[in-house]
TrEMBL record:
Species annotation: Linum trigynum
Domain Retrotransposon gag: 3-71
Name assigned to this protein: Retrotransposon gag domain-containing protein
Species lineage: Eukaryota, Viridiplantae, Streptophyta, Embryophyta, Tracheophyta
Length: 80
C-alpha cells in the first residue's frame, strides 16, 4: 500500500518506465549497416522508438535521421 503520492508515482515510473528506457536514445549517428536490408534497418530504427517511448524528437527529425542513415541499398529482398 502506498501512503504518499510520491511513493505511488515512483513505483509506477519504475514499473512502466524503467531507467534503461528513460536514457537518451542513440538516434544521432544511426546508419544502415553494410549489407543490411532496408526492412531490417527500419525494424532496428523502430526498435529504438519503442525502447524510448517518450523521446522528444519530432516526426520530421526522425524521418530525416532515418533517411540520412540509409546507404542507398534500397533492396527489400536478399540478393543471395
Amino acid at each position: 500500500m502506498f501512503r504518499t503520492w510520491e511513493a505511488l508515482s515512483h513505483a509506477f515510473s519504475e514499473e512502466y518506465y524503467p531507467q534503461w528506457r528513460t536514457g537518451e536514445p542513440n538516434f544521432v549517428g544511426f546508419y544502415q549497416k553494410e549489407g543490411e536490408l532496408f526492412y531490417k534497418t527500419l525494424d532496428r530504427f523502430n526498435g529504438l522508438l519503442l525502447n524510448f517511448p517518450h523521446h522528444v524528437y519530432k516526426k520530421e527529425q526522425l524521418t530525416e535521421t532515418l533517411y540520412k542513415g540509409l546507404n542507398g541499398q534500397w533492396s527489400y529482398t536478399s540478393t543471395d
